[in-house]
Amino acid sequence: MSLLPIFQWINDTGAATYLRESSWTYPVVMASHLTGMALFGGMILMTDMRLLGLVMREIPVSDVVNQLRVWKRLGGALVIACGIMLASAKAESYYHNPFFWTKMAFLMLIVIHALVFRGPVYNNAAAIDRAAKVPTIAKVAACISVVLWVGMVSMGRLIAYYEGYH
Amino acid sequence: MLNLMFVYDPNTNPLNNNEWSFPLLEIIHIVGFAISIGTIAIVDLRLLGVGMKHQSSAQLLKDTMPWTLVGIVAMLISGPLIFSSDPNMYLLNYPFQFKMAALLIAIVYNYTIHRKVALSNPSPAIGKLVGGVSLVLWASVVFAGLFIAFIS
């Protein structure tokens, strides 16, 4: 079964058409997507850098992980909501865009990363504090996280450069 | 008039002669401002009294400062290179002019008022004001940057 009819249907809904044809709403949604990325993406990178011992070394890992969690979630909700709107507005052309699908693959890997490392790392911050040094698995999680997030942001930018379909 | 300021042909710029350097610079720009604005926002959450409350704003500022600078340097290298791809377009672009003004204010504010207040562990009222202004300034820089592509 092809997903194309579903993407075409989304593309032709009133909301998606309005957004696509708007001169102001579309860039405002995109700017919100980008601002959310700056705030919340930056916090994710800093959490990873803390696990790697490269920032906020005086601050316990659990304080960094736990105190930023709610803000990363709120930021994530903003970025995802705006992202869904942006993708809906151009659903049909995105269906044909390999960078969009690569971005979705990165997103899926990020979900898997969260499921795999939540137990041993992110929900286990107090134990990391008690350890003499940050365990290897936490450092591995942080490195993979940085690669996945930068990869996803890169693919997002490249969506605009694909010229195979108009 | 402005055309006379840049009497060079953008077609001679290597940036405009391959397909990967422009998006690569944009990606560096985005990751750079995520790092700088993300670290500044960590301090701002504390100033606003809504996050990182186990730490003082002074400690957060000192601990994140090097990364804020890394992000700003990445922005200030990638940004002018992007600008060089089509200076005349950017100079006449209203959102770009607004962005440059907002960016100048945001950077000066960050290294003067914001820094001084964060280091002094301010009262909640002052903290909220200074943290709020900081977030609004940086968000306006991002918004204006995005709008360069949408309005002239």
Summary keywords:
heterodimer; A: 166 residues; mainly alpha; 8 helices; 0% strand; B: 152 residues; 6 helices; 76% helix
Task: Describe the structure in brief.
The complex is a heterodimer of chains A (166) and B (152). Chain A has eight helices and no strands.
Radius of gyration of chain B: 18 Å
Question: What is the radius of gyration of chain A computed over CA atoms, rounded to a whole number of angstroms?
Answer: 18 Å
Q: Please give the domain count of chain A.
A: 1
Q: Which spans of chain A have pLDDT < 50 for at least 5 consecutive residues? A: none
The average pLDDT of chain A is 94
Distance between the terminal alpha carbons of chain A, to the nearest Å? 23 Å
Ranges of chain B with pLDDT <50 over ≥5 residues? none
Present the secondary structure layout:
The complex is a heterodimer of chains A (166) and B (152).
Chain A: H1 4-12, H2 14-21, H3 25-51, H4 61-89, H5 91-95, H6 98-122, H7 125-130, H8 136-158
Helix pairs in contact in A: 2-4, 3-4, 3-8, 6-8
Chain B: H1 2-5, H2 21-48, H3 57-84, H4 87-92, H5 94-119, H6 124-147
